[in-house]
Design brief:
Layout: H1 9-25, H2 32-39, H3 43-49, H4 53-77, H5 83-100, H6 107-115, H7 120-147, H8 156-177, H9 181-194
């Protein structure tokens, strides 16, 4: 197995392998040996970098959440100025990503369904990720309310929570149906009907 002098190389390779395997196979169906084999590192090196499989999974979730945050920021860089159009722009980009990735779903949603009741550590990281995403969306919805394009009889935080809950549910449907129509329908229903003033 390949060894390297770069101290960040093995954790990076483990993280990349873990992300791929957890996305494809799930948490419980993925073993440490599979992860180290995919990463091309000795099995013993796993525990030099991670205390447990739970700690490793929590790091994967946190890394994925950071990637989503960065993707959100990139989407906003060329988004239309009106806030409701910016929301549509971001989620349209996310839908395109899911199409390109073969409808694998959201790693946070996948983990929530599989380990939220059995891993307090993972559950905490999942909560942090979802709370951050809701906050980002609420900021845009608050702007849209001020612009008069989103209903203001319900506060933006509540609307953002409802939107994300519907989105995560649509992601599960997408995985079952193997296409992104559920995502498109959810965004259209939210922005064109349920959130309109």
């Amino acid at each position: 197995m390949a060894r390297t002098a770069d101290k960040t190389d093995i954790p990076r390779r483990l993280t990349e392998a873990g992300y791929q395997l957890f996305t494809r196979c799930g948490y419980h169906a993925t073993g440490i040996q599979q992860i180290t084999d995919q990463a091309g590192v000795p099995k013993g090196s796993f525990y030099n970098h991670f205390d447990s499989k739970d700690a490793f999974a929590a790091a994967i979730i946190a890394h994925y959440a950071q990637w989503v945050d960065e993707s959100w920021e990139r989407c906003l860089q060329d988004a239309p100025a009106p806030a409701v159009d910016a929301v549509r722009h971001v989620f349209t980009r996310f839908i395109a990503h899911h199409e390109q990735q073969g409808c694998q779903g959201c790693l946070v949603g996948n983990f929530a369904a599989e380990v939220a009741e059995t891993s307090a550590l993972c559950c905490g990281v999942l909560n942090t990720a979802l709370a951050g995403w809701r906050t980002r969306l609420a900021e845009l919805l608050r702007r849209a309310q001020a612009e008069g394009s989103v209903r203001s009889d319900v506060d933006a935080d509540t609307l953002a929570t409802f939107f994300w809950d519907a989105w995560e549910g649509a992601l599960l449907r997408m995985k079952i149906e193997h296409h992104t129509q559920a995502l498109k329908d959810t965004v259209a229903l939210m922005l064109d009907h349920l959130l309109r003033p």
